[in-house]
Amino acid sequence: MDQRNLWGRALAAGLALLFVVVAPAALAEKYDGVTITFDKPIEDVQKAAVDALTTVGAPPSKQEPNFVEGKRKNKMGMMVGSGGEMLSVALTSVETGKTQAKVRTTKTFVGRAGQKVWDQQILEEMAKVLGVSAPAAPAAAATQ
Amino acid sequence: MLCVAGCSTTQSGFRPLGQTYPPKAADFAVEIFESGEPQRAFERIARLDSHFEKTHLIHTSHATAIAELQKQARAAGADAVIEVREMRSRVGETFILHLTGIAIRYAGPLHAP
Description:
With about 140 residues, chain A is of the alpha+beta class. Chain A has two domains: about 1-30; about 30-135, Kinase associated domain 1, KA1 (TATA-Binding Protein), CATH 3.30.310.80. Chain A is built from three helices and five strands; from the N terminus they run H-E-H-E-E-E-E-H. Chain A has a five-stranded antiparallel β-sheet with strand order 1-5-4-3-2, with helices on one face. In chain A, a hairpin with a 2-residue loop joins strand 2 (about 60-65) and strand 3 (about 65-70). Chain B has about 110 residues and is of the alpha+beta class.
C-alpha cells in the first residue's frame, strides 16, 4: 500500500512539473508580439523605437535601420525582483511613408517571475514621439 | 553592498536631434521649463532621458531625476530643457521613474557659450 502511495505521489509530482514547464512554453508559442502600422517613414519610426525602448529602461544595444533591440537590467528584490526582458522592434516599409512595427517582449530565465510584457508601453511612447494617436491595447500583449 | 549594486539602476543619456555641440561646464546652470517655453529664440538640440528603477518599494524623487536631466543637458551642450515629461510606473516591488525632455540652445547674441 505504501509503495502504491509513493508511486501515486511521484506521478502527481511529475504531472505538476510537466504542467509548470510546458504551460508557459505553450503560451509563449502563441505570443508573437504586437504589430502596428504607422503613417511615417521608416527612419522616423526607427528613432521613435529607440526613444521608446529607452523610456522603458531598455536603451538599445542593437540599432539597425529596420531593427532595434535592448534589454532591461535585472534587479534584485525582497521577494521578486524585476527586469531581464529583451525588447525588440522590427520595422518594415509597407508602402511610401508607411512603416509596420512589430514590437516583441521576450522574457528571459533569470528573474522571469518579475518580468512583464512591455509592448503596449513601447507602442504608446512611439506614438507620442511620432505625434500620432496612441494605438489601442491589442489582446496579444496580455499573454506570454 | 550587494543590494546597492543590484537593487537599483539609473540609465541616462541624450540623443542629438541634429548638429552636436560641446558640453557645458559642470557648474553651468541649466534652466528647466516644466511648463511653457522661454520667450527668447531657441533651437532644439537633443532628446534627454533619465531612467530610475529601485526595488524594495523605494521611490526616486522628482528633484533627483531633474538633476540627472540637467546633467545630460550640460553634456549635450544645452542652455535649458523644455517639454519635460514624467512617467511613473511599478512592476511588483520595483518603482520606475522616467523623465524625458528636449534640450535647447538659445539662439541670438544673448547666448553665453
